[in-house]
Automatic annotation (TrEMBL):
Domain Glycosyl hydrolase family 31 C-terminal intervals: 771-872
Region feature Disordered, mapped onto this chain: 558-580
Secretion signal span: 1-22
Protein name as annotated: alpha-glucosidase
EC number from the UniProt entry: 3.2.1.20
InterPro entries tied to this protein: Gal_mutarotase_sf_dom, GH, Glyco_hydro_31_AS, Glyco_hydro_31_C, Glyco_hydro_31_CS, Glyco_hydro_31_TIM, Glyco_hydro_b
Single Gene Ontology MF annotation: alpha-1,4-glucosidase activity
Domain Glycoside hydrolase family 31 TIM barrel: 334-763
GO biological process terms on file: carbohydrate metabolic process
Organism listed in the record: Rhypophila decipiens
Transmembrane stretches, start-end: none
One family name in Pfam for this protein: Glyco_hydro_31_3rd
Length: 1003
């Protein structure tokens, strides 16, 4: 491999100060004075400050009791029938068990047929009093509930609800047409206490569940997993709770038809000669409390530490039906993104000043790699404080000049904003921080139970935290203050969007550790930052020793020496802490049921559960909504900063509905091969959650990447909606121009991305209008192929592009399946994107339905296929999206097995929130011609230059464009590839390709 940047840059970047994203508790050390930079000695927050109680999760506790064994369950009484459902009381069926709180003696059950394909089941305490005031339906101001469709009758529903009091109350939900039971608690007990509820449902053998995010795992969740939904400041740990909480799942089941025509469940659907049908339904629990979902072979157990059981069942019967209905009714449609956000984004923690940013921008141009946006981690901040640039390294005047050049070139700048606010040192006049002062005046921050400010610790030292819940529910001032701060800052530095981090919300100490300690500010975090002495970034990807043996040996030796120099963790004899319930009292900080939280104690690396909002609301009840509501506030702020424009926000912590305000990146992943793979199931899950603007830290955030991994990853991420490279302080640089091979691989993949860009934008628009998905699981599109149920190493863009990346080190081939093939020759047709030939379909007899095919994929090549029947309008690449949008149009027309194809293209200004001028272009093709019919008033003046027809089995004698016969120098037919190409057509479209109807015919 060849390095393309200077040694000085490589060495300098490893020493730059900055921020560490994620928990990084493995870097903890004892408190000593240290330095953030050579001239600024500061106090270090003690590592002991972030140690909580030694809580043992109940699922790992041999002494934990099973509520199903000890609790009595409930009996239904006083049933009240209504036309759209019924209500009943649920009363304890025996003496209270009080195992993880105080049993609620009387509940209400409300069953509502909300729409023909949607059913609501709500269970909540019957009597609300001061003593149990926390039992509320989640406030609709924070998380709207799906609304009833007026006039819906039970008889209209495609779902049925049945209940019984056999032993104890239980219910089941089933499909009316097939009788299949979708959800059943019968034979189990509903447990409902003041800090705990539990319900169980049986599921069929080898079930297929998806969702229940956010989790780093394969797309199909499996039946041996405990999913914890508790937002955590932590890296991308496999199977653990990380940043977001999405309490929704899809359940897909496959069937064959028996001899009598009845559907028979196919647990092991491996017979590729059989004909299958699938049904998918969805289940959403509208609850924001800490939750735990146990997936086991027999079914699912759902537990939460508060709130109500508020379940919504979506009939489907397809995955698309569930996903679109969920977005339309429950969480809202995704925010429409500006066109430019689909360009390439470059970031790292360690770009130390405006000059370095300019060098990076210039290097992209030098090596002819498109760059849309340069990002800034908190290197730009003065002492890591929001809305305050470092006056030496990132002065406003120099920044204004830099941004003027950037914007003139059609490029953009995105800074990070953290979810905590520095609390200045009251004994140091030079430490004044007006943002904090204005927040205090606005009652914008969380409080201790005694009403004093809650002060934790994050990057700048001791910090306070905006009170989003109090602002929404009590009218305190956090949102208005946030809008003002972002507006005042924009007046100083013209950012183009906002990157929200640390929003779970994170704190590096347990409790209000800064109370009484502000005179120690600013303070260093209680762990060593990457690149600091004793914490050098030395890890490389798996297999690095196979391609870089000498460097790998040196790094391994240095890592061993560094690890040996670290203090050995002493074993603890401290017993596990087990909270026991007190009748009638809630233990807020240590609830009796201990969820399987990554950080153990709920207060570790987080704001404590007893932190209080204005109005008395507790973090215990609202923790999972911090990240959700800061996105809401930021969206409102950017509407003020950029009137009439679509806000661009990428956030870390999300909840059900965050997609209507923001996109999401995959968090603090690692420069390891598995994390490249995990980015695909992450993206597919966020498609389900209604957040299509998703992408990982390409090439990995933590550790050092290498040429091979970064090459493969830059190509894979070129097909994600959000495309960004980002890495950690102290690691080797990983911009794509660092290696010649990565630069070339990136240019290759970006060419395809730019050709697809207008079509990708169309998909994003359709997602924002209808809830349709952009990145799709193969099983969603090909529902009759059960062998695709776990497919997550390939994916689709829309319905028309299939991506099959190499995800393993050292490989030059990859196995993939071409879905939709049939032995009767009536299935799908797939064409190679690069050479235009049919690679799977009726004319390629060597590939069978469901067959895993070995595909050539040498380094620098990512296999991409276009599906027959899906027309795509293309434009040639540019160095920015602005440049690319000025290029002539092309059409790629792949005929399906019937010799037909169709497609859509959406056109607007790519910026406006309320679009006044837009055009939809509808494409249709058959074996005789192609037509394009525009409808709308948006003017695009770019002409049509190319038309390429794939799969035309016989070459034409004549070709006409807009009724005029083309000369032979304007078209050609390849008899081997079965491809008709038309070129240099600009003269036929002087007013633009889509000004009027387009008609291209041949015979």
């Amino acid at each position: 491999m060849t390095l393309l940047v200077s040694t000085a840059y490589l060495l300098g970047a490893a020493l730059l100060p900055g921020l560490a994203l994620g928990g990084a508790v493995e870097y903890a050390r004892q408190a000593t004075p240290t330095a953030v930079g050579p001239d600024h000695p500061v106090f270090t927050v003690p590592s002991s400050a972030d140690i909580g109680k030694n809580v043992i999760p109940n699922i790992n506790d041999p002494l934990a009791v099973d509520a199903q064994d000890l609790c009595p369950g409930y009996l239904a009484t006083n049933v009240q029938e209504e036309s759209n459902g019924f209500a009943a009381d649920l009363v304890l069926a025996g003496p209270p068990c009080n195992v993880y709180g105080t049993d609620i003696e009387s509940l209400t059950l409300t069953v509502t047929f909300q729409d023909q394909d949607r059913l609501r089941v709500q269970i909540q305490p019957k009597y609300i009093s001061k003593e149990n005031e926390t039992f509320f339906s989640l406030p609709e101001q924070l998380v709207p509930r799906p609304a009833d469709l007026p006039g819906t009758q039970e008889s209209d529903s495609l779902l049925e609800f049945h209940w019984s009091n056999k032993d104890t109350f239980g219910f089941k939900v089933q499909r009316k047409d097939t009788g299949h039971i979708l959800f059943s608690t019968q034979g189990t007990k509903v447990v409902f206490e003041n800090q705990f509820f539990e319900f169980k449902t049986f599921l069929p053998e080898s079930y297929n569940l998806y969702g229940l995010g956010e989790v780093v795992r394969g797309f199909r969740l499996g039946n041996n997993l405990t999913r914890t939904l508790f937002a955590a400041d932590v890296g991308d740990n496999v199977d653990a709770n990380i940043y977001g909480s999405h309490p929704v799942y899809l359940d897909t089941r496959y069937f064959t038809k028996g001899a009598n025509g009845e559907l028979e469940y196919a647990a092991e659907a491996t017979d590729k000669s059989a004909e299958y049908v699938s049904y998918t339904h969805g289940v959403y629990l509208r609850n924001a409390h800490a939750q735990e979902v146990l997936l086991r072979p027999e079914g699912v157990t759902w537990r939460a530490l508060g709130g109500n059981i508020d379940l919504y069942f979506y009939n489907g019967p397809s995955a698309k039906d569930v996903i679109t209905a969920y977005q339309h009714t429950a969480v809202g449609l995704p925010a429409l993104q500006q066109y430019w956000t689909l360009g390439f984004h470059q970031c790292r923690w360690g770009y130390e000043n405006w000059t370095v940013l300019q060098e990076v921008v210039d290097n992209f141009a030098k090596f002819e790699i498109p760059l849309e946006t340069i990002w800034a981690d908190i290197d730009y901040m003065k002492g890591y404080r929001n809305f305050d640039n470092d006056p030496i390294r990132f002065p406003y005047k120099e920044g204004a000049d830099f941004l003027d050049r950037l914007h003139a070139n059609g490029q953009h700048w995105i800074p990070i904003v953290d979810a905590a606010i520095y609390a200045p040192n009251p004994e140091n006049a030079s430490d004044a921080y007006p943002t904090f002062n204005r927040g205090i005046e606005a009652n914008a921050f969380l409080l201790n139970p005694d009403g004093t400010p809650y002060i934790g610790a994050v990057w700048p030292g001791y910090t306070v935290f905006p009170d989003w819940v109090g602002a929404v529910l009590n009218g305190s001032g956090a949102i208005d203050w946030w809008i003002e701060e972002l507006s005042l800052w924009y007046d100083k530095i013209k950012y183009d969007g906002i990157w929200i981090d640390m929003s779970e919300v994170a704190s590096f100490c347990v409790g209000s550790c800064g109370s009484g300690n502000l005179t120690l500010n600013p303070a260093h975090p209680p762990f060593e930052l990457p690149g600091e002495e004793g914490n050098l970034v030395l890890r490389y990807p798996e297999g690095f020793n196979l391609t870089n043996a000498t460097e790998a040996a040196a790094a391994s030796s240095a890592m061993a020496s560094q690890d040996a120099a670290k203090p050995t963790a002493s074993s603890t004899t401290e017993p596990y802490f087990r909270s026991t319930p007190t009748p009638g009292v809630r233990n807020i900080n240590w609830p009796p049921y201990a969820i399987n939280n990554f950080h153990n104690d709920l207060a570790v690396h987080a704001v404590s559960p007893n932190a209080t909002s204005h109005g008395g609301y507790l973090q215990y009840d609202f923790h999972n909504l911090n990240g959700h509501q800061i996105l809401n506030a930021t969206y409102r702020a950017l509407l003020s900063v950029f009137p009439g424009k679509r806000p661009f926000i990428i956030g870390r912590s999300t909840f059900a509905g965050s997609g209507k305000w923001a996109g999401h990146w995959g968090g603090d992943n690692e420069s390891l091969w598995p994390f490249m793979y995990f980015s695909i199931p992450q993206a597919l899950s966020f498609s389900l959650f209604g957040i299509p603007m998703f992408g990982p830290d390409t090439c990995g955030f933590g550790g050092n990447t290498d040429m091979e991994l970064c090459s493969r990853w830059m190509q894979l991420s070129a097909f994600f909606p959000f495309y960004r490279n980002h890495n950690i302080l102290g690691a080797n640089p990983q911009e794509p121009y660092v290696w010649e091979a990565v630069a070339q691989a990136t240019r290759t993949a970006m060419k395809v991305r730019f050709e697809l860009l207008a079509w990708l934008y169309t998909l994003m628009v359709q997602a924002s209008l209808t809830g349709d998905t952009v990145m799709r699981a193969l099983s969603w599109e090909f529902e009759a192929e059960p062998w695709l149920a776990g497919a997550d190493r390939q994916f689709l863009l829309g319905g028309g592009i299939l991506v099959t990346p190499v995800l393993e080190q050292g490989m030059d081939t990859v196995d993939g399946v071409f879905p939709g093939l049939r032995t009767d020759g009536k299935g799908e047709v797939w064409y190679d994107w690069y050479n235009l030939t049919e690679v799977a379909g009726p004319h390629v007899h060597s590939i069978l339905p469901g067959q895993n095919v070995t595909i050539e994929a040498p380094l620098g090549h990512i296999p991409v296929y276009q599906r027959g029947g899906h027309i795509i309008a293309t434009q040639d690449p540019g160095m920015t999206t602005k440049e690319a949008r000025q290029k002539p149009w092309g059409l790629r027309v792949p005929l399906d097995v019937h010799g037909k194809a169709e497609g859509k293209l959406y056109l607007d200004d790519g910026v406006s929130l309320e679009v006044e001028e837009k055009t939809w272009v509808t494409f249709e093709a058959n074996e005789k011609g192609v037509t394009a019919v525009p409808e709308g008033d948006y003017t695009d003046k770019n002409p049509l230059r190319y038309v390429t027809l794939l799969g035309l089995q016989e070459g034409p004698q004549t070709v006409k464009v807009q009724g005029t016969k083309l000369g032979k120098d304007h078209w050609s037919y390849d008899d081997q590839a079965k491809t008709l190409k038309m070129m240099d057509l600009e003269a036929f479209f002087p007013a633009g390709a889509w000004k009027d109807r387009v008609e291209i015919m041949w015979k």
